[in-house]
Write a structure and sequence with these properties.
Layout (H helix, E strand, L loop, with lengths): L13 E4 L3 H13 L3 E4 L7 H4 L16 H9 L13 H13 L8 E2 L2 E8 L15 E7 L4 E6 L1 E4 L27 E3 L9 H4 L3 E5 L3 H11 L8 E5 L18 H16 L3 E3 L4 E7 L7 E6 L10 E4 L28 H4 L14 H4 L6 E3 L1 H4 L8 H15 L3 H5 L15 E3 L12 E3 L39
Parallel strand pairs: 1-2, 1-7, 2-3, 7-15, 8-14, 9-10, 9-14, 10-11
Antiparallel strand pairs: 4-5, 5-6, 12-13, 16-17
Helix pairs in contact: 1-3, 1-11, 6-7
Bound molecules: flavin-adenine dinucleotide.
């Protein structure tokens, strides 16, 4: 793909969609490059999505959570970095990092909260029109919290709007199962604060949890921590078999908190305190209306197995990008993963069971409408293996490209910790993943470890997917050419 050395309309700002960690890291990079920008955030605060899981402990330590440009800006302003090895909750990430960053004098005047981007177009052109498309600025159609609409012209758009607002449904076909929408009041999408604000809803209740990724583990472990009369009766629904691969790399995971989460979950699953429904693919959600089960729901699988009545079901079957924003842009997304086409093969969970991701930057994140970039969690589409470090490298490269420094944009400056194994909310059909390019993605099924994977022969050692899980596998060290 041919790319301009410099985007036109340099008098216009770069619009960043979303003030999450990756959007704000983009802002810090734009400050560094002295490029005018505007961050549009739908929520009423920076980090609005993270605020919804503020009670959840992350699995990365602080040293993997702070962007380098943001660190420099904050340090100049007297910010004291948290201990490198400490592992924050989402709330601490907000309080100790994102809020100070959003409040930094070189960023804060250019962050607009309560501003939801509805669509991005080429100014005055729909998707079909060729015209002088590449020369037109972007028009960012925005709805503000007071109901006012505004069209903001932009020289380039960095879309860091994440996926947390778009949870995948219960229905195994990727669309809501019959009965799912009607019974939405009995379903909770995301990770509830079981020990905090949502306690009354879950204490002593008959609870279903659907999903097998880290979000499900967090919810299940929180439910298991309630005792006595508050102890809920928990049923866990997964599409795979249980087995070691389901719980991730455990002691082999270089992110030790993530390994420990998988280990705690395995012990809980083995304890007999949960009713575990394996190979359960939700086909129908039934409402129960009479007697002691009034107001409960029953899940039915595609092979006709029915659950016991449930007071509430926690749905953690993955997240997906909101593609409506780019309805009138020319974007190139992988048809399965919904990530930019050049990035998708690098992250496709059908291909990469270990979650190791080759370095990538502005080229992989570009689209046919040059100057629009998908970054952060959204850039991974439906793949669940995104790490913030990856996002920070993405925006470093993208901003360098926008600023016209292609040499720096091409450089790779990323080293990621080895994941041990992916334990995912979006999942692989069939058995392996290293070798099977064509296996369909399903949700809630786990991948095997590379070392267990029969696909990984000794000759595969160059493939990060097949590398031994006990050793760290850096993606690249120091500057390298993509
Ligand atoms: C429970 C949980 C734990 C995680 N733990 C880790 C971890 O330990 N380590 C790690 O590296 N990663 C972790 N991740 C993955 C990932 O790093 C986070 O999801 C991270 O928040 C992604 O950052 P982001 O900036 O891409 O998106 P988000 O943080 O989701 O930010 C997107 C922002 O865009 C805003 N927005 C959405 N739509 C619009 C719109 N149309 N217009 C304007 N604004 C909009 C949202 O309100 C939000 O503020 C975790 C994820 C979850 C869910």
């Amino acid at each position: 793909m041919q790319l301009h050395d410099q985007t036109p309309h340099t008098d216009l700002p770069v619009v960043v969609i979303g003030a999450g960690p990756v959007g704000l890291a983009a802002a810090a990079r734009l400050v560094e490059e002295n490029v005018p920008f505007l961050v549009l955030e739908a929520g009423d605060r920076a980090g609005a999505s993270i605020a919804r899981w503020a009670h959840v402990r992350l699995f990365s330590p602080w040293r993997y959570l702070v962007d380098d440009a943001a660190r420099s800006l904050l340090s100049e302003a007297g910010w004291r970095s948290p201990e490198d090895d400490g592992i924050p909750t989402g709330g601490a990430l907000l309080q100790s990092y994102l809020e100070p960053l959003a409040a930094h004098p070189s960023i804060s005047p250019f962050v607009r909260t309560g501003s939801r981007v509805k669509t991005v177009t080429r100014a005055g052109l729909d998707k079909l029109s060729d015209g002088d498309r590449a020369e037109r600025p972007f028009a960012v159609h925005t709805e503000h919290a007071d109901g006012q609409d505004e069209v903001i012209l932009a020289r380039a758009v960095i879309d860091a709007s994440g996926t947390y607002e778009n949870p995948s449904p219960l229905g195994t076909s990727g669309v809501p199962a019959p009965g799912e929408t009607e019974n939405a009041g009995r379903l909770y999408y995301g990770i509830p604060d079981v020990r905090g604000v949502d306690r009354a809803r879950f204490a002593g209740a008959r609870v279903g949890v659907v999903g097998s990724g880290h979000s499900a583990f967090n919810a299940l472990l929180d439910l298991a921590s309630l005792n006595g009369a508050e102890r809920p009766h928990v049923s866990w629904f997964i599409r795979s078999e249980t087995g070691p691969a389901l719980f991730g790399g455990e002691d082999d995971d270089e992110l030790s908190e993530r390994g420990a989460l998988g280990k705690r979950m395995r012990l809980l699953a083995e304890s007999g305190d949960l009713v575990v429904h394996t190979k359960f693919r939700t086909a129908v959600v039934h409402a129960e209306g009479d007697g002691p089960t009034a107001g409960t729901v029953i899940l039915e699988s595609d092979d006709g197995v029915r659950s016991a009545p449930l007071d509430i079901v926690i749905v953690v079957t993955g997240f997906r990008p909101d593609l409506s924003i780019t309805r009138e842009l020319r974007v190139a997304l992988d048809p399965a993963v919904e990530a930019p086409v050049a990035l998708a093969p690098l992250i496709d969970p059908n291909l990469h069971s270990c979650g190791t991701v080759p370095p990538h930057g502005f080229r992989e994140l570009s689209h046919p409408d040059e100057g629009y970039y998908t970054v952060g969690m959204k850039s991974y589409g439906r793949a669940p293996t995104f790490l913030l470090l990856t996002g920070y490298e993405q925006v470093r490269s993208v901003v360098k490209a926008i600023a016209g420094d292609l040499e720096a944009a091409e450089r790779v400056e990323l080293v990621l910790p080895e994941t041990g194994v992916c334990s995912t909310d979006a999942i692989i059909g069939g058995t392996s993943s290293c070798c099977s390019a064509s296996a369909p993605i399903e949700e809630a099924e786990a991948t095997p470890t590379a070392s267990d994977d029969p696909c990984c022969t000794p000759t595969d050692s160059a493939d990060p997917c097949c590398a031994p899980t006990s050793e760290p596998v850096p993606l690249s060290i120091g500057p390298a050419k993509r």
